[in-house]
Amino acid sequence: MSARIGRYSVYIKPLFCLVDLVILNVTISFFETNISLTLLFSFYISVLWIILSIKNKFYDVKRFSRVVQVLAAIIRQFLIFGLILYAFIGFFKQPGISRLEMAKYFTSLIGLVTLVKFALLYLLSKYRKVFGGNIRKVVVIGDNKKTNQLIKIFKDKPEFGYRYQKKFAVKDQGFNLESCFYYIVENEIDEVYCSIADLSNDQLREVVNFTENNLKILKFIPDNKDIFTKKLIFNYYEYIPVLSFREIPLDDPINKFAKRTFDILLSLIVLIGILSWLTPLIALLIQLESRGPVFFKQLRNGIDYREFYCYKYRSMKPSTSVNQATKGDSRVTKVGKFMRRTSIDELPQFINVLKGDMSVVGPRPHMVKHNEEFAQKVDKFMVRHFVKPGITGLAQVSGFRGEIETKKDIINRVKYDIFYVENWSLLLDIKLVILTILNAIKGEEKAY
């Protein structure tokens, strides 16, 4: 039985935590907060910072984590830590503490911790790339498009700290698992990446038994030809292992609170700052071209498949048709064509956001009739209803907005929607809002 060679550096997470604790306790001395119980305050913020970090998995940053994931973790951490900080005043009855100075201290902490965290992560990646430290030696079992893409990442991203050693093509003549296992042991391989698509159940069982008995880390590359995602979550109920199919970040109350706060603030800004003066102007232009209501409402499905009325500026001539708008659709008015191209017709949906029926960002809601059709034709279509629908979404900024011309369009839209559902972060929402604004300014091909 071989030992794990260089799998983890056990000092990395404690080091990151220690640096942050030093920042927390040293930075306070630069502000005139009038804290009299200094030792108690130091103990209070240090202990609660550690507890909060464990709960939020603040230091559980993977070598392959994206910048947006790190920023999302920082935002989650400080949203709660800000409350903890000010709770000290009331809990320990310290009315003399300056709230303004505490705010300055808190703002400085956000900047310093963010700067230092990214600096340490950068140095760690350079340590892996330049000096070859904190390296994990890996092999890949399987030969297909996904394994080749993974191998390319290993080779192109040395800062991730993976040293690719060999690929075992299962379908090659002469392949056998015994020679593969011998190579792994002899070359002190740390991690084994195994393609589910290439191995039989018996072979997978052999690989699992081997890696467990030889203390090797086994990771699977899923076959997702028939399924859009396999983000499985492993938990224990007492001593019984239970596998959950997917984890939804917005099920977490903290994430839900952060997203709802973002929705309310942005919808108020748009409703007061833009729609208050834009609506009368749009109403005049709509009425000059065609008689009928200024607003258009349509029954759509939202979170948990609940029905709600979605609001828009009317961009088409009054009609009983429920068909999607197509290119050159005669029902679309001249004013409507401009509004649809710039997405101005969607702005009244901020009313839906304020009401709580929708979110600023999320899977776009479809008409009830279309939902019933797509649910029968597209696998995993209903997953997108685990969260509130949005005014814009990942699928929309990725080129899958507007008319569904082929089945491939809706399949790709659902793929992006499921990715968003499972990988939500506040930073991702902000990024998608910015991309939506830029796309609206440029104009989009399918905005008709």
Structural class: alpha/beta
Using only C-alpha atoms, the radius of gyration works out to 27 Å
- Number of separate structural domains: 3
Helix content: 40-55%
Look at the structure and give the mean pLDDT: 83
Span from first to last CA? Answer: 64 Å
Low-confidence stretches at least 5 residues in length (pLDDT < 50)?
Answer: 1-8
Largest sheet: 4 strands, parallel
List the secondary-structure elements in sequence, H or E: HHHHEHEHEHEEEHEEHHEHEHHH
Shape: flat
Order of strands across the main sheet:
2-1-3-4
Summed up, the helix count is 14
Number of strands: 10
In words, what does this structure look like?
The protein is of the alpha/beta class. It has 3 domains: 12-131, no CATH class; 136-223, Aspartate Aminotransferase, domain 2; 253-442, no CATH class. 51% of the residues lie in helices and 12% in strands. The chain contains 14 helices and 10 strands. The strands form 4 sheets. It has a 4-stranded parallel beta sheet with strand order 2-1-3-4, with helices on both faces. Helix 3 (67-91) runs antiparallel to helix 4 (99-131). It starts with 11 loop residues before the first helix and ends in a 6-residue tail after the last helix. This is Exopolysaccharide biosynthesis polyprenyl glycosylphosphotransferase. It is found in: Membrane.
